[in-house]
Specification:
Number of helices: 11
CATH topology: TIM Barrel
Low-confidence stretches: none
Strand content: 15-25%
Mean pLDDT: 96
Distance between the termini: 15 Å
CATH superfamily: Aldolase class I
CATH architecture: Alpha-Beta Barrel
CATH class: Alpha Beta
Bound molecules: 2-phosphoglycolic acid
Structural class: alpha/beta
Number of strands: 8
Largest sheet: 8 strands, parallel, barrel
Length: 248
């Protein structure tokens, strides 16, 4: 049985004042059936980890460098994130793939570094609008999975997030059938590459405009093990509704 996961991606949002939202979230009824991970900007990782030390919210980051230290101005290593209190890191988000030209190979190296430091990686895959129109979505996803995930994947160190690029921050969501098709495909590929045991234990999240109004339908799609939630994770009131729906 895979435990549901609600992962909040705060992107480049949040000053210290926003820690009050995390306090509210942490005070809300814990949902044992659903793990909760918040991924704030790097500047808040340490203070958020402190707020969450005695509750059921785990902290993640949004990126790491593939090297553990060295002359990389402006970058942050996986080891530093662990030192600051992170247990997860999002890798290969489409916003980074697009803005920084991160390739599957870069994402794979970052995932290796994350694992070496003891972080679990939430590796993102997803097709653009043009790719979906050209109906080669599964080819795109298959290529990203093969190229971005290192060989040593386990159910503990890997989470895959399927995020259609055109659904991120737009309010658009694929049909439940389309979500199901991609999630079944990801599960099949994970089982084929890593064996049934590992392939069945890796959680596969849906991401892209998930909100309190659509989570209940999306969570019922087979092979959807939770969500990677952007905008709707910023306010405790919305995010706790999503958590409660995933835990139901
Ligand atoms: P969204 O973002 O929920 O605001 O669409 C999701 C994401 O980019 O991870």
């Amino acid at each position: 049985m895979r435990r549901k996961l609600a992962a909040g991606n705060w992107k480049m949002n949040g000053l210290r004042a926003a820690l009050s939202e995390v306090e509210l979230l942490a005070k809300a009824q814990p949902a044992p059936n659903c793990e909760v991970v918040l991924c704030p900007p790097a500047t808040l990782v340490r203070s958020m980890a402190k707020v969450c030390v005695d509750n059921c919210v785990t902290i993640g980051a949004q990126d790491c460098h593939e090297n553990s230290s060295g002359a990389h101005t402006g970058d942050i290593s996986a080891e530093m994130l662990v030192d600051a209190g992170a247990e997860y890191v999002i890798l290969g988000h489409s916003e980074r793939r697009e803005a920084y030209g991160e390739s599957d190979e870069t994402v794979r190296l970052k995932a290796k570094a994350a694992w070496a430091a003891g972080l679990s990686a939430i590796i993102c895959v997803g097709e653009s609008e043009e790719q979906r129109r050209a109906t080669n979505t599964l080819d795109i996803i298959g290529g990203q999975l093969a190229g971005s995930i290192p060989d040593a994947a386990t159910g503990e160190n890997l989470v895959v997030a399927y995020e259609p690029i055109w659904a991120i921050g737009t309010g658009l969501v694929p049909s439940l059938g389309d979500i199901g098709e991609v999630h079944d495909f990801i599960r099949m590929r994970l089982e084929r590459r890593f064996g049934e045991g590992v392939g069945r234990s890796v959680r596969v999240l849906y991401g892209g405009s998930m909100n309190p109004g659509n989570v209940d339908d999306i969570r019922r799609v087979p092979n959807v093990d939770g969500g990677l939630i952007g905008g709707a994770s910023l306010k405790a009131a919305d995010f706790s509704k999503i958590i409660a729906a995933l835990a139901a």
